[in-house]
Amino acid sequence: MGKDSSLTMDAAYRYANALFNLAKETKSIEKYEEDLDKLLKPLKADKNLSSFIKSPLYSRDIQMNVMKNVGKKLNLSADVVSTVLLMAAKRRLFALREMIMHFKLLCRQHRNEIIVEVFSASELTDALLTKIKKTINTHIDKEIVIKANCDPGLLGGLIVKIGSKMIDASIRAKMVKLRNNLKEVG
Question: Each residue of 26-79: pLDDT tens digit?
Fold first, then answer.
């Protein structure tokens, strides 16, 4: 991990932990998470805003002013806006996206949730998603949140990612394995 990445993650963890502790004290975890989701949308969608928060070329005052206006426009709670403005004042706004992601992780841990990503060649029905969730629930003692993704390149089957573990039961993976086995024979 590079020095810049380490600095970003360190700043993100500190601000996310501080905001999360404040959210627990004020019983506002869900509200703050919703606010941070509202803030994350324009960060992902608007490349100019994303570049703005990462750029050291803008002064502290300009960054604080812009973020204050963004917070007002999105109707964010005072504590969330104060945290973002503090990050801008301390020249740590570059870690905003990572702070939001870490805050969301803390919220999932608080709710005892785990995200399971399921990739399939076509859209999965609700019944099949429920069946997958029940199957995973027999092995994991956490609330399962499934994020379904469609990848036509899989041809069929599924890829299931649980944390850092991946189960690849796709036809594409089986074809690659078969091709490699044939290369070894021939």
Answer: 999 999 999 999 999 999 998 998 899 998 899 999 999 999 999 999 999 999
Helix 60-73 to helix 47-54 angle, to the nearest 10 degrees?
140
Helix (H) or strand (E) holding 136: helix 126-137
Give the distance, in angstroms, between the CA of residue 80 and the centroid of all CA atoms in the same chain.
18
Task: Read off the pTM.
Answer: 0.75
Q: Based on the number of CB atoms within 10 Å of its own CB, is 28 exposed (0-12), middle (13-18) or buried (19 or more)? A: middle
> Which of 99, 101, 110 lies closest to 28 in space, CA to CA?
110
Sheet holding 113-120, edge to edge: 143-150, 113-120, 157-162, 165-170
Contacts of 108 (CB under 8 A, 6+ apart): 114, 115, 145
Q: Which structural domains are found in the chain, ordered by start?
A: 3-109 (1.10.520.20), 112-185 (no CATH)
